[in-house]
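Friendly challenge for the regulars: who can give me the structure tokens for this chain first? No prize, just bragging rights.
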Amino acid sequence: MNILLAFISGVVFWTLLEYMLHRFLGHVHKGKNFFKSEHLTHHIKVNYFAPASKKAMAALVVTIILFFVIQIFMGILLTAAFLLGLIGMYLLYEMTHYRYHSKEPVAMPFIVLRKHHFYHHFHNPKTNFGVTTRFWDRMFGTFVRVEKVVIPKKFCMKWLLQDDLIKPAFSAHFRFNS
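First reply, four minutes later:
Bragging rights claimed.
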């Protein structure tokens, strides 16, 4: 395996890990865990995000464990490339997820993933677990195609509003519940 392939594998592996963590630790798991408690708070307070220090510590622990396990099979250089892809994608995920909740989309095509994510938040938390991709939801049967997301007004993000109504640019994609 070459370095580029190891890096790309890390990127792809993150998307699977994101799906699995969200679905199984965040929703299916019956007990308490750090991820679930922070995630449920995020569902209750839509603009809440776990503190960066907690996320960094969890990411560091996972990275160290993965490094020692993976390097047995791939060697140090390929493991480093894999983890660089994984960590890079994790950071992109964090920025993307935060941006979904706090800022307007840069371009309208990116609204598809937001609708996918917001459907999970406001309609059915047993579907649409992916944030950076819809691929694993399709693979594991948790995908729901979203045309328009109904958002409770009390949870509406500021970037969606203009004069207390959904901005015209987003009205084809979002509406308030009655």
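The chain has a mean pLDDT of 91. The beta strands are 149-151, 161-162, 165-166, 174-176. Your move, everyone else.
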